[in-house]
Specification:
Radius of gyration: 16 Å
Number of domains: 1
Strand content: 5-15%
Number of helices: 9
Shape: globular
Largest sheet: 5 strands, mixed
Structural class: alpha/beta
Distance between the termini: 26 Å
Length: about 210
């Protein structure tokens, strides 16, 4: 994991636009802790956790900080957007997520969202080469949410490049390949295990070019 992070940081350190203030807004401390460790210190990027509570809280938080940052990158789970497992009715979370996506794009078309389904633990499983693992499987080998995530990843040789190779990043609900372009939504893929965190580093690179 260490050697991979050195490559990541060297790559991202080039041509940083320090005037472009970027805030990465994470659903919880697991995401924020992992991303802080992955990126290291990049002068124009700050990372915060809003400690869960759904897509509406993301929108409220960003609205209250609109004037402080130029670009907002959201890191969230897709579980709250899933249909009711019994009735198959569309959830309120689905509408809130789509509202958040629309708001982000209207605010600045450089903004984007990174979604993992059912949760960040799918990405964690891919990092350690076990893409079929559930959260329960990870817990059974010592995983704990929050600040412990990087200790767990080091113990299990977690690696960004490993996740890129294993994760489903093709059949995803939300896709936005680069800043400044329109996004697409594929409702047929909403319930699949997926993550577009594979694009995080490249997206940050493009913002800072």
């Amino acid at each position: 994991m260490a050697s991979s992070k050195k490559v990541v940081r060297k790559r991202l350190a080039k041509n940083i636009k320090t005037s472009l203030k970027i805030l990465i807004v994470c659903e919880g401390p697991t995401e924020s802790t992992y991303i802080e460790d992955l990126l290291g210190h990049i002068p124009n990027i700050e990372i915060v956790s809003i400690d869960g509570a759904g897509y509406g809280k993301f929108k409220n938080y960003i609205e209250s900080n609109e004037k402080l940052y130029k670009v907002f990158l959201v890191v969230a789970d897709l579980d709250k957007a899933q249909p009711d497992p019994q009735t198959r009715k569309t959830s309120n979370g689905y509408h809130l997520l789509n509202g958040l996506i629309t708001y982000l794009h209207k605010l600045n078309n450089q903004n984007t969202i990174f979604l993992s389904n059912p949760d960040i633990e799918y990405w964690i499983a891919c990092l350690i080469g076990q893409e079929s693992y559930t959260k329960a499987d990870l817990v059974s080998i010592g995983y704990r949410k929050g600040d412990f995530v990087n200790t767990f990843l080091r113990a299990h040789n977690g690696n960004f490049d490993t996740a890129v190779k294993l994760v489903n990043s093709d059949k995803v609900y939300y896709r936005k390949p680069k800043p400044g372009v329109n996004y697409t939504l594929q409702s047929d893929y909403l319930e699949l295990r997926q993550s577009n965190l594979t694009e995080l580093l490249v997206y940050i690179q493009m913002l800072n070019q």
